[in-house]
Amino acid sequence: MHMRKLPIAAFAVFVLACVAPAQAQSPYGIGRSATPAEIAGWNIDIDRYGNNLPPGTGSVVHGREVFDQHCAPCHGAKGEGGIGERLVGGQGTLATARPVKTVGSYWPYAPTLFDYIRRAMPQNAPQSLSNEDVYAVSAYILYLNDLLSAEAILGAKSLSAIKMPNRNMFVGDARPDVNNPACMANC
Fold it and tell me: Of the N and C termini of the chain, which has fewer Cβ atoms inside 10 Å?
């Protein structure tokens, strides 16, 4: 009986010896920590105030070219919608029985337009547009919504300065878990 327990004990020691070094990497013994360069590649979020907008500029004229090539197949030639959402119009409809929620009628902050386009568009190749192209497409969409002139050139400072028509129509969230005083700035 004692001889039968010896191989089991030896096997248990072997398994523990193999697992101990693996646990130094992670609790599961797989993977590794992301490098700062890997994190930087995904740390591209832009907040409503325009913090973290990248350098670069884009014009309405160039935005039309990029929009025609990458956006119009889904959103329509003038942003009127198609298989993709409508991007233009809808001002004055939000309080009606059939609100039309577009960039011009619903979005409260212009920098979030840049953020969304850069992260998610075009749908078949997200994050494939250059920063200049994203500024340009943002400028063109804002122009189509009568928020910029045809000659406008958009960059971080000018995009952050745009006051969207629906900016003051959103109400605060009264849920107690949302208004966490421990994380109201520099979180």
Answer: N
